Fold:
Amino acid sequence: MGTRHVLLTAFLLAILLAPTAPAMSFLPTFDLPQSTANKPPEFRPPNPSMADRVVVKKAERRLYLMRGDQPLRTYPIALGFRPEGPKRLEGDGRTPEGRYVLERRNPRSSYRKSLHLSYPNARDRLRAHTRGGRPGGMIMIHGQPNAHAGGRPREGDWTFGCIAVSNPAIDEIWSLTADGTPIEILP
Structure:
């Protein structure tokens, strides 16, 4: 059973990590036209004034709510306490990188409000497994901790891997997104 497990893991890794053509984001860059090749089905928000996707640029510490090819809103963010690189294992303090969706919302969070991301996906789980650990979970976009005095944004990168915004920002993001909204987190 042990040998079978090792062989299966090696096979899956070979498939998932094999060299492929350069990955193309299904989210537009701000200065290049969007390709229609290999594009996933388009998400349609329930209200046309809502964002149809979210883009997070970790290096810029910015979250963009997008509608079409244009930013609808932009917000400063805080990341995990070790923000460089993608999340690999539970407890590493990193914010994931990749494509996910906003799965569900929690109005009774330990933070003002929170929007749960679909992290980890199958690739994230396999990557963590091959490193002998777990990928973690409960990655969210959220406001400030309820216990934080005055709701003022905390300074620096302080989360365990989540994307934190100010309380007014989470209220606006909450109202301008729907469950199922795609999110891409870039380095």
In short: The mean pLDDT is 83.
